[in-house]
Amino acid sequence: MTKLLRLFLWVLTLLQLSQLAISRQKQKVPTPPLPILPLPSYSQLKWQQRELIMFLHFGINTFTDSEWGTGHESPAIFNPVGLNANQWVDVATQAGFDLMILTAKHHDGFCLWPSKYTDHSVISSPWKNGHGDVVQELVNAAKAVGGVDVGLYLSPWDRHDRRYAHDLEYNEYYLAQLQELLERYGSVREIWFDGAKGSNAPNMSYYFSDWFSMVKELQSSINIFSDAGPDVRWVGNEKGFAGNTSWSTINGTSLSIGNASIEDYLNTGDPKGTDWVPAECDVSIRDGWFWHKSESPKRLSQLLEIYYNSVGRNCVMLLNVPPNSTGLISEPDVQRLKEFRSAITTTFSTNLAENCYIKASSQRGGKDGGFGPENVLDNDHLWTYWAPSDDDNDHEQWIEIRGTNGGLRFNVIRIQEAIGLGQRIKEHKIYVDGKKVADGTTVGYKRLHRLEKGLVHGQIVRIQIVKSKGLPLISSIGLHFDPFWHPKGSRDQSSLLS
After folding, report:
1. What gap in Å lies between CA 286 and CA 323, rounded to an integer?
2. Cis omega (within 30 of 0) for bond into 32
């Protein structure tokens, strides 16, 4: 082989290698953006995705027509002869709930399970001749259905037990009962603590840090709810309303259980918060928390308003549905829950944006980088998302949905962030055909804008991110029609937007 030929082959080989290297560089997939701390845990993400949780206030108060028992009630009055936890679970599943939290012990100190540390429990009642166990009945019913989890509430304030007001004795008693519940009944997904007690209650120091440590030792995947978290915080009221600004982040060191002065802080969270402690919005389907014969369930419009102001504001809605003295969820409540589920399904089962053209101000990694605006219309509302280019950080960032012939008619706009990488959006605005129809601050897991002026008819919907901590990451967008939304003075706004 001549030197000239060898040189030619050598040059040809170099060219092939360089082309291969260039080709490989072109094929590199852009990486996701760095997360913005703090981040949710796996258990917190699962909790957020539930959206709805059912509370079951049931106990001595159910039979005395009261809300706060005295602690002096006789266990002989507890006799729910028709108790059927299977009915509870069936009602919950039909209404879209997959976690049910039971009041294992309320302030009156009566225990719905046969605790070996007190006889003030079902063991001293005529129900099932003292051999009943409400906690076990619920656990068995949930397990039989599958896909339904159980949570428990154990009131720190105990108006019956003589050890209350004796710090060491009572905290040992409370810890012993916690251990019973968390060891005896299998997996508990949420444990509920609060600081509620009467103004005349004896001074008492609760060893919350000891309690929380034992809870996590016994069940590491559980979520602990209280005013101070550490996993889920109270929203600051019992109306079920989160703040219009609603951060999942908050400073845990600023929180304390039973402190009324921090209710506004709990309601909004903190954009500079160092801890991920999202809010749970507790509210009852009736005026009271326990069943009262004289009460009726809230109207459907009220429940929907609560839904938009809890789930629609980056929170989870905890709806109390109290069983009656027979031991069943009352028929009026059952029917209202069916209407509630039907209304949610009717509104959100169809996304009017699905078949639309979608574009954005920019996208990370370019056209084929995997972070395009089309991700907001897939079925993954958490881990696929639109991400603008790093170069777009100092410019207006927006994502736009363009309707086909005939345009779009809707009255609800849904936006969701990829919260697995942190909560980011501080301020956003929404325009239809260039005219603003809604604005807001935070988004988080889910933000629902139920348009104040009612139905909108337009061609181009633009969501503009005004302020954000780092790059905004939007995981899902929806345009929906809520047939139950009739704001005062509303009318078809097609003329306003034309």
Report:
1. 11
2. no
Considering only CA atoms, give the Rg of the chain. Answer: 27
Q: Where are the beta strands (DSSP E) in 127-189?
A: 149-154
Length of the chain (residues): 498
Of the candidates 119, 220, 201, the residue with the CA atom closest to the CA atom of residue 156 = 201
Residue pair 76/114 in contact by the 8 Å Cβ criterion = no
Helix axes 167-184, 208-218, angle to 10 degrees: 20
Whole-number Å distance between alpha carbons of 151 and 189: 5
pLDDT tens string 404-439: 888 999 999 999 999 999 999 999 999 999 999 999
Which residues contact residue 454 at a Cβ distance below 8 angstroms, ignoring those fewer than 6 apart?
411, 485, 486, 487, 490, 491, 492, 493
The three-point CA angle 381-387-392 to 5° equals 155
Token duo for residue 401:
């949905």
Instruction: Identify the burial level of 27 via C-beta atoms within 10 angstroms of its C-beta, where 0-12 means exposed, 13-18 middle and 19 or more buried.
Output: exposed
pLDDT at 496: 37
CA-nearest of 249, 260, 365, 241 to 312 is 241
Cα 268 from Cα 235, distance rounded (Å): 8
- The mean per-residue pLDDT over the stretch 198-205 comes to 92
Classify residue 465 by its DSSP letter: E
Any idea which residue has 């919005």 for tokens? 281
Spatial distance between the Cα atoms of 380 and 318, rounded to a whole number of angstroms? 24
> Do residues 374 and 358 lie in contact, with contact meaning Cβ atoms separated by under 8 Å?
yes
Q: Is residue 60 a contact partner of residue 110, using CB atoms and an 8 Å limit? A: yes
Record the pTM.
0.93
Render 323-370 in DSSP notation, one character per residue.
--TTSS--HHHHHHHHHHHHHHHHHHS--TTTTSEEEES--TTSTTSS
Q: Taking phi first (over 0 means left), then psi (-120 to 50 degrees means alpha), and beta for anything else, what does residue 70 get? A: alpha
Token pair listed for 271: 């954009």
Distance CA 434, CA 50 (A): 35
* Tens digit of each residue's pLDDT (9 = 90 or more) over 250-300: 999 999 998 889 999 999 999 999 999 999 999 999 999 999 999 999 999
Q: Computed from CA positions of residues 398, 403, 408, 414, in that sequence, does the dihedral angle turn out positive or negative? A: negative
Examine the pLDDT at 495 and tell me if it is beyond 50.
Answer: no
pLDDT tier for residue 343 given thresholds of 50, 70 and 90: very high
Residue 465's nearest CA partner among 424, 419, 429 is: 429
With beta carbons less than 8 A apart as the criterion, state whether 487 and 454 touch. Answer: yes
